[in-house]
């Protein structure tokens, strides 16, 4: 709702009230409409201030309402009525003015912002555009290039930038409402014609066509198939080329297409899923309410390879005091130099002072004795990690949390190397760790809820999106990646090429296909794991057929490449060729194609044409199938966990909502039918066998993804 009051004698104060962000729900819109009418009809009221309760102006339209039947007064006429008012209306912006919140402010005649406020039109990240006049008013106010930037990226800007762009008229460090009321008193009798943004001409550049062509190319390149950024450019173009009313019509038309699109549903699902995973819950019911994090003042990072350095940078940037341990002197010196450079560059970008002094470097593990939490990031080798955990358990003060950055190894086994297994959790960062948002917080059966709470809390402080998951081989992300990569190898055997398979996945929206990704991360990593598992035996040493392991189909293609020293980008050759070791531009490699032909001939395989649909179905449905197994096993507490892990850690296109949401969009019955089809064709590939949870969901009528948790609970209680 919105509360009306009269302050300072003649100022009508309208306060939006809808905690926590004063979203423009039907009740709030109704409250604004009623309050504006009241203010305009009250002769005692000479000017009006609109503000939000509890230090937040407005977080925009109520996203929860988008899924249902919209009721209450619509936004556009409400904002028009404010702009058309014959008494000055001032927006007092504290906290956030986002989306419809900023559009409401743009309908006001003046805008005063608190210095800490953030403003923006983030609709594009929800698959929409600012359709309450935002695409028409903002370019008229600040010009086309700046408006295009804000509307197509959805970025939030500071009050200082908003002032510089001309979005706000004044910035204050004091009470914004008081400043706005004083301002409103001063402008009470002033004429308003020059303050109605919809009447402004849109500032024109000399070559509009070139400007929009460039903007369109830019969004198409970065959007990876997302339609909203394209619609945003089209709407702003209407502002620049058409009268306001026609521009509004175009905005409405484009919004109608976006609003009902699957992409908008997927992106809005991601918005809520991201917030849902923050409210983690362990199978025993532990969550924030029951388990408070322990304060962490001092942290240690053990091992300063690529991952350790990234983690160290992310920690130092939070302002925490960090002890960095690396036993090899050379490696320590190199790491120190590299980390300082990373911190300096990061600080320069953000316009802050680098936090180099937060770090103490040491070669001695005993220097971690006084820290509150340790993150181990040594080489991915169980014997080495076992030793480190035994040492940590001996040298750390009682109660120190011991975390491992392993990407797949058994957390419980590592916990068993220590005197206090309840203090051990996984903190699985993604490379580069100071950039990537995702953090898998992995609990073993003995991890205490407080250890999980502390790791989740520290992750949040580091700017990460933490997802708490159970312990199993590869946890959630890497466990699902295994069948996906396996299918890609099989497709190569059957006639595919790395180029065609990658193209299908990139057109789906991944930033890079499976083979480019594998070249980037290094083929030797998977090879080492397969060797450890006894899979990647050299064909001469092996007693079994090179294409079968334990009665299951196996592709030794990756192993054969590694045997040739082709480890990907770092060696200049992998599934592609590169100009030199370390180069990033993947080029098609004729050697690889003749190698594949030779391999097929050797194994009596006849290449067939594999279309894009088969690539997507086999690679993605098998990954989704493993996601259902993970849900069935209780490793992830809901589909949101899996989807957020894939969107933030593995490049799954956000506008497709994550693998589990995508399965729902495709139709669970269809996913099941295609898996059955492929499993029939490849009975020796167990990953293609549909998971029983998927069968049960289909049998229970394929309920929407936000209700799966209930079905899963029932299924698990019956198991
Ligand atoms: C005709 C169409 C016109 C306009 C279209 C729009 O306006 S679309 C909406 C555009 N607005 C946004 O995209 C803003 C979304 N919100 C945020 O970015 C952040 O929530 C915000 C406002 C910066 C606050 O961040 P903070 O970290 O402080 O809180 P958090 O994100 O955890 O949110 C707290 C709870 O509020 C819920 N929520 C936030 N915004 C909205 C919203 N616009 N509608 C509905 N609900 C919203 C959020 O889900 C959290 O809920 P909880 O149950 O506590 O998890």
From TrEMBL:
Membrane-crossing residue ranges in chain numbering: none
Record EC number: 1.1.1.35, 4.2.1.17, 5.3.3.8
GO cellular component, one term: peroxisome
Alphabetical list of InterPro entries matching this protein: 3-OHacyl-CoA_DH_CS (IPR006180), 3-OHacyl-CoA_DH_NAD-bd (IPR006176), 3HC_DH_C (IPR006108), 6-PGluconate_DH-like_C_sf (IPR008927), ClpP/crotonase-like_dom_sf (IPR029045), Enoyl-CoA_hyd/isom_CS (IPR018376), Enoyl-CoA_hydra/iso (IPR001753), NAD(P)-bd_dom_sf (IPR036291)
Keyword Protein biosynthesis applies: no
Domain 3-hydroxyacyl-CoA dehydrogenase C-terminal as annotated: residue spans: 474-578, 615-711
Keywords assigned: Fatty acid metabolism, Isomerase, Lipid metabolism, Lyase, Multifunctional enzyme, NAD, Oxidoreductase, Peroxisome
Annotated 3-hydroxyacyl-CoA dehydrogenase NAD binding domain residues: 298-471
Main location: other
SUPFAM superfamilies attached to this UniProt entry: 6-phosphogluconate dehydrogenase C-terminal domain-like, ClpP/crotonase, NAD(P)-binding Rossmann-fold domains
Biological processes per GO annotation: fatty acid beta-oxidation
Localization annotation: Peroxisome
Catalyzed reaction equations: (3E)-hexenoyl-CoA = (2E)-hexenoyl-CoA; (3S)-hydroxydecanoyl-CoA = (2E)-decenoyl-CoA + H2O; (3E)-decenoyl-CoA = (2E)-decenoyl-CoA; (2S,3S)-3-hydroxy-2-methylbutanoyl-CoA = (2E)-2-methylbut-2-enoyl-CoA + H2O
Family membership noted in the UniProt record: In the N-terminal section; belongs to the enoyl-CoA hydratase/isomerase family.
PANTHER family: 3-HYDROXYACYL-COA DEHYROGENASE, PEROXISOMAL BIFUNCTIONAL ENZYME
Oligomer status and interactors: Monomer.
Name of this protein: Peroxisomal bifunctional enzyme
Organism: Echeneis naucrates (Live sharksucker)
